[in-house]
Write a structure and sequence with these properties.
Elements: H1 13-29, H2 32-36, E1 39-47, E2 50-53, H3 55-68, E3 70-82, E4 85-95, E5 101-112, E6 118-130, H4 151-154
Parallel strand pairs: 1-6
Antiparallel strand pairs: 1-2, 3-4, 4-5, 5-6
Length: 156
């Protein structure tokens, strides 16, 4: 029996937003094994200039990522959707081991299989150094509170 990860395509505005929030929540857990379960076994990724294939590679990538990007907090927002595809924009804040803060901005294109698992993720990301006083994400580590402003509300 195949794994299933509702909501399933074709997406509506409501289910695309739900899928994006589920992805945001998983990534904010900073749990590579949990996040990897949202992808097909043979999922293909392009993340910046890195190309990955498969859950094991994704889990390894995320383990490395969150060992470098400390106190990671992310917000995602749907940009567009159609059928089994969703485009999101995102911004996340993090600091390195020297205490330098960054806000990373990007766009992702997602393609899902019929079971709601992501089979393709293409991400373009840019990092902006910021001062600690310029941070906008101050919730406790983990899931973003429902009443926290969205990217649009923050002007990002």
């Amino acid at each position: 029996m195949s794994e299933s990860r509702p909501p399933l395509p074709p997406f509506t505005a409501e289910t695309a937003a739900q899928k994006a929030r589920m992805a945001e929540d998983a990534w904010n857990s900073r749990d590579p094994a949990r996040v990897a379960l949202a992808y097909t076994i043979d999922s293909r990724w392009r993340n910046r200039a890195e190309f990955l294939q498969g859950r094991d590679a994704i889990q390894g990538f995320l383990t490395r990522k969150w060992s470098r990007e400390l106190d990671y907090r992310l917000i995602k927002e749907v940009w567009a959707f159609h059928g089994n595809r969703i485009a999101v924009r995102f911004a996340y804040e993090w600091h390195d081991d020297s205490g330098s803060w960054f806000r990373s901005y990007g766009n992702e294109n997602w393609e899902f299989d019929e079971h709601g698992l992501m089979r393709l993720r293409i991400a373009s990301i840019n990092d902006l150094p910021i001062g600690a006083a310029d941070r906008k994400y101050h919730w406790p580590l983990g899931r973003r509170p429902d009443d926290h402003p969205s990217l649009s509300e923050l002007g990002l």
